[in-house]
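(Protein data)
===
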Amino acid sequence: MSSKNYELSDDEEEHYIFVEFDDSVKLEKYRNIHVLGIDTKNPLIQLDNTFFSGTYENPLGTHIFFEDDPLAQTSDPLFDKLPERSLKYKTKSRKTVKAEHVYIKMKEGTESEAQIKQDKTDHEIPAVSFTSVAEAVERFKKDWMSSHPELFNERK
């Protein structure tokens, strides 16, 4: 939530942390962003259904945060032109989280995992190997013809 819409209570503090993603992540394309365990050694960041694991690092400098300045003014409107977008200083931080993409897998022994394994075994196709494309085509024809004999019986 932005600080404009949310008032902090007396026992809450607001901290800014710079997060560096290892992949090229465009935050604009995500609708939901959740940060879990920000006060732990390895926070988790969830962007929709994509997960990142973070580790704290010491930056070489200070990260400075800016926000849009809708009330930007100039002291001399004749000679000083305002840029299309004006920014003003918000805060600084010396905290950095380096986030790496992680893949979440289901815990072993859960009901849904047993169901997934059952579904996989119901639809498994045995692996076969071929020495050439022609051999693969001939094998496919033979298997398909034997599984659909009604199509190849001669009609009298």
About this structure: Residues 52 and 116 are 25 Å apart (CA to CA). The chain has two helices and seven strands. The mean pLDDT is 78.
